[in-house]
Amino acid sequence: MRNLSSRARLTAALALPLSVGLLAACGSQPVDQAASSTTTASATTRSASVTPGPATPSTSPSTSPSSAAAPSETPSLEEAEGATPLVAPTTSTSSTSSATPQDSTSSTSSPSTTSPSASPTTQPDADDHDTSADGSSAVLKTGSSGPDVRAVQQRLTDLGYWGGAPDGSFGGGTRQSVLALQKAAGISRTGKVDAATRRALDRGVVPRSRTGASKAIEIDLDRQILLAVEGGRVKAVINASSGNGETFVVKNKETGKETKYRAHTPRGSYSVYAEDDKLHESTLELGSMWRPKYFDGAIAVHGSGSVPAYPASHGCVRVSNSAMNWLWDSWGLPIGTPVKVY
């Protein structure tokens, strides 16, 4: 069930000042404007602390939402976030029209218009055998199944790492939750459950909220995770991918004009001010965005078929399509919800 009716969302979007200067691409900045860009609030870049112990959320997001249908997805350029309109985004007055995509299990997909540089923590482990480095237990990865997988899924769910309902099958959702844990713990971002990941599970590593808000979204750019905060506590930790900071040239599909942009996700304090409850098609040759929630000009949190372990977007904050459905349909992310980017 949607938190706001289509009429309410449309009213909220139309009430925005039309003078808001939106960029032509998702979160991207024309390079001649990047130098003068400022955020609405300053935020100190520092490593966020984690809370050891079994900090199980009171209500864990353990099930996938039964959202209206969404478009099918395969990791490709078309699934990267697209350009937002040259006018303020408006909400859809119709229900979602196509089938919900299955999230990609690949960690390497990224827009062909950029070449993200991988951070040291994104490199896969050298040991890719069926046992962990100390030989104590099996390394679980995409395709694994059985009671051990289900136990790991349940532990991730109890800690608040969103990946869908535990089912004993290691798929794309489980990989997303494992990546989120590895990012929060500061260990190698392999997407596999190895010895280091099991230790992080045993310690109960959970990021702390920096806002302590009654309800808010927090985006940690250093660790590439999104936190859904409720009642001052972290309710869900979601794997995310933000702007990679690189420049790229893209053509407007309507005018044919080419513009150089910088893939930048700004830090600061914002709030959700517009949304689009459908697949938003780009005005530039960048692709599309699934159910975007805009919080700063053209920058949005949105679903994508490619959410790797490193910054890879054109400036928006990507989460998996299923995680975006959960934010819309189960947790609720209405217009006005605070968004803190640090």
TrEMBL record:
GO (cellular component) term, any one: extracellular region
Gene Ontology MF: a single term: transferase activity
This protein's record includes keyword Isomerase: no
BP GO annotations: cell wall organization; peptidoglycan-protein cross-linking; regulation of cell shape
Signal sequence interval, chain numbering: 1-24
Residues at the catalytic site: H302, C316
Protein name, entry field: L,D-TPase catalytic domain-containing protein
Organism annotation: Luteipulveratus halotolerans
